[in-house]
Write a structure and sequence with these properties.
mainly beta, 6 strands, single chain, four-stranded antiparallel β-sheet, two-stranded antiparallel sheet
């Protein structure tokens, strides 16, 4: 049995533009609208503990679980995060292939 801990915190720089723009009702440039978004900041913090139950190097098949927890640290309004706590479990099944187990 083995335990590992992974942590990720993305840093994002976003910029975008939507077309078409709205020139407004008059020829006056004061009522024009350009649709765009700009944001920068950190995203959601992901904590990835991995619990290896069976090792593929010692057995024919390896098995592990990764119960990821994503904390809402990013701003949802700026598209930097989901805005909610997320639990995302994953099961891992692996094996080693080839004469030396290179694959």
């Amino acid at each position: 049995i083995g335990i590992e801990l992974g942590v990720s915190l993305p840093i994002s720089l976003l910029t975008g533009r939507a077309y078409p723009s709205d020139p407004g009702r008059d020829a006056d440039a004061n009522d024009d609208r350009d649709y765009a978004f700009d944001a920068q900041g950190i995203g959601d913090l992901a904590i990835n503990p991995k619990l290896r139950i069976s090792n593929a190097s010692r057995n024919k098949v390896g098995f592990g679980i990764i119960p990821t927890i994503i904390l809402p640290t990013g701003d949802k309004a700026k598209f930097l995060g989901e805005g909610q706590l997320i639990f995302q479990p994953t099961a891992v099944l692996d094996t080693e292939l080839g004469n030396q187990g290179w694959f």
